[in-house]
Backbone:
């Protein structure tokens, strides 16, 4: 239905247009004061990186920043990487992560836009009939944008805060994945070296068995057994080498490296286990305060509550334009004002109210579920951490020393001709296998340590869901349907 038009040009209000123009101009100037922040909201991401990871995060938006990042990458890649170095490389060079930071710019642009009123509209009509003519001029402004503007700005501000949390959570997620990939890559490379020793031992045993069989001093069964050991060792070595390549490539992708960067160096061994496992007190309560996905979900809930109030306040009046109008005919100029008002006959706004209420209840239940999941994830991660630490320490302090002692004793027995060379080779293979299991246990501990930190920080998926809800918030608050 077309908006109703009310035109009232009383002569007594001849000076009204100028005052109205000045008022409209003042409103436009004040509404145009919303500006962009200096850091684009990235300060929250930098703070999270420094406090939770002790590394610097950069949003590369200029050539100067790109050049500084390349110089830092060159410095980091010139030496064997530590876990923190790998994380810093990823935060500087992972292009997917850099792309996710654009959400900050989008959210801030929405916030600034929410604080600016729409441009006024100017109308001009010029009709002629022979010597007669009629000229109409009008300048109108949708003043109904003004009352809800503070609330709309508040909603935009919450949406911007959600975007900051989402960007920080995404950064922490990439950091955690990079740390996991680092530990897997180092462990896989270390395991491949030990499988090379197993293969060499099996190869020596198979060659000796072949010669002894040719000399008639070894049975066909004994020779077949040694050949089988050798064949299995070759297959294990091939698999371990492929695993090492795959894990290194995974780390390469997370760090965003290519070309000369592919020659990055990793340490030969995993870091030593800590002297004692970390004691996490009040882990659940800490997670409730610090997890970014919970914070983002709470902000979504608050923003939806605000938007529900906004929807109720504006459901009856969608368009209310106030402006100045001037009509001119031969020898006569009439001035006044013009009002345009949408009459709520067909749409009373019930659908928008129902939609906003449904969005709010959806967010409330989602927030509760995120909190339940967070508590469970922290408990599970801490249990896995303690178990992984105990197992890694058990292999380091018990199993590997015992295998080493057995190997030393067998060497002495071989020197005294109490055992043969094949028994000595078999013991060497078992010792290497024990070392490999110890490497895996140490790797699992560092992965569990990373998982525990990630569980305390919160997953990026939760924050992204909340950020998506923020867009729904903006839509609900603006009356979109």
Residues:
């Amino acid at each position: 239905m077309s908006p109703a038009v009310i035109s009232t040009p009383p002569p007594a209000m001849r000076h009204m247009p100028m005052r109205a123009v000045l008022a409209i101009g003042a409103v436009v100037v004040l509404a145009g004061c919303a500006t962009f922040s200096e850091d684009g909201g990235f300060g929250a991401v930098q703070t999270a990186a420094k406090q939770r990871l002790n590394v610097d995060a950069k949003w590369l938006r200029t050539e100067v920043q790109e050049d500084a990042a390349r110089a830092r990458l060159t410095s980091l890649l010139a030496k064997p990487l530590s876990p923190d170095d790998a994380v810093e490389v990823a935060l500087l060079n992972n292009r997917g992560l850099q792309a996710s930071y654009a959400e900050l710019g989008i959210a801030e642009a929405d916030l600034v836009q929410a604080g600016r009123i729409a441009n006024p509209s100017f109308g001009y009509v010029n009709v002629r009939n022979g010597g007669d003519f009629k000229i109409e001029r009008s300048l109108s402004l949708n003043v109904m944008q003004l009352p809800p503007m503070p609330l709309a700005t508040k909603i935009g501000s919450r949406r911007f805060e959600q975007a900051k949390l989402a960007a920080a959570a995404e950064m922490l997620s990439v950091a955690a994945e990079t740390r996991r990939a680092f530990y897997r890559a180092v462990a896989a490379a270390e395991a491949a070296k030990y499988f090379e020793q197993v293969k060499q031992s099996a190869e020596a045993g198979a060659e000796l068995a072949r010669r002894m069989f040719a000399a008639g001093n070894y049975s066909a069964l004994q020779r077949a057994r040694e050949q089988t050991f050798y064949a299995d060792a070759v297959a294990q070595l091939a698999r371990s080498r492929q695993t090492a390549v795959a894990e290194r490539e995974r780390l390469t992708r997370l760090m965003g490296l290519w070309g000369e960067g592919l020659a990055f160096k990793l340490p030969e061994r995993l870091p030593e286990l800590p002297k004692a496992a970390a004691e996490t007190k009040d882990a659940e309560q800490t997670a409730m305060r610090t997890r970014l996905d919970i914070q983002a979900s709470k902000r979504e809930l608050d923003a939806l509550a605000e938007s529900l109030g906004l929807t109720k306040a504006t459901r009856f009046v969608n368009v209310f334009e106030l402006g100045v109008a001037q009509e001119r005919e031969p020898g006569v100029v009439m001035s006044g004002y013009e009002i345009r008002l949408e009459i709520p006959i067909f749409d009373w706004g019930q659908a928008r109210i129902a939609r906003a209420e449904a969005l709010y209840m959806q967010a409330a239940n989602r927030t509760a579920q995120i909190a339940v999941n967070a508590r469970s994830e922290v408990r599970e991660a801490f249990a896995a951490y303690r178990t992984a630490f105990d197992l890694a320490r058990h292999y380091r302090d018990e199993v590997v020393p015992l295998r080493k002692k057995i190997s030393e004793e067998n060497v002495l027995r071989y020197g005294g001709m109490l055992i043969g060379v094949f028994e000595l080779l078999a013991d060497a293979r078992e010792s290497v296998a024990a070392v490999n299991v110890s490497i895996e246990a140490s790797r699992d501990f560092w992965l569990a340590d990373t998982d525990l930190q990630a569980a305390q920080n919160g997953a990026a998926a939760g924050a992204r869901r909340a950020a998506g809800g923020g867009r729904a918030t903006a839509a609900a608050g603006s009356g979109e349907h």
Confidence is low (pLDDT under 50) at residues 1-16, 316-321, 460-481.
